[in-house]
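Please study the protein below:
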Amino acid sequence: MDMNTDLFLDNMRRHIRLTEEEEAVVLSKLRPVKLKRREHLLKQGQVARDLAFVIEGCLRAYALDDNGFEHILQFAPAGWWISDMSSVISRRDSLLNVDAIKPSEVLLLSREDQLSLFDDVPKLERYFRVLTENGLVSSRMRLIENLSLTARQRYQRFCQTYPNLINEIPQKYIASFIGVTPEFLSKIRSER
């Protein structure tokens, strides 16, 4: 594999301890992919077959409504996982698009390889369980925050969650993520 895997291994080691042999088995299942800016990893209507771990760059997952407006559900900077898990698990068409905000490098793990790794490296199941639990908690908190926080508070939460992205991604993406217009986001930012 010609892509640096240290970030992936460090991420995994925060949750589980594997032997060098087990790490080699896991790494053998990962496929490195480079994405250009705006290149799609997944398009709405396709079945998601892979989970993606971001090594470099940043991806986003978003849905398009009937009017063509984007609703960003997740950003994935380096060190984060991204996919449409509903599609990966159910094998149904994805409701999301996943693309690169800027040139990115990712490691892909197919659902089939993930499941086989659970048999070959049982500790990996704990790793993905922890990630799934954290993702569920994060998703639930985001839903509650979107229902109960003001736009300013949602922006503050974004800044806490993604401090490195504030000045690195287009403001229209941040506005979409927190559910405001780009103009209103500019007003919020000017008041800080």
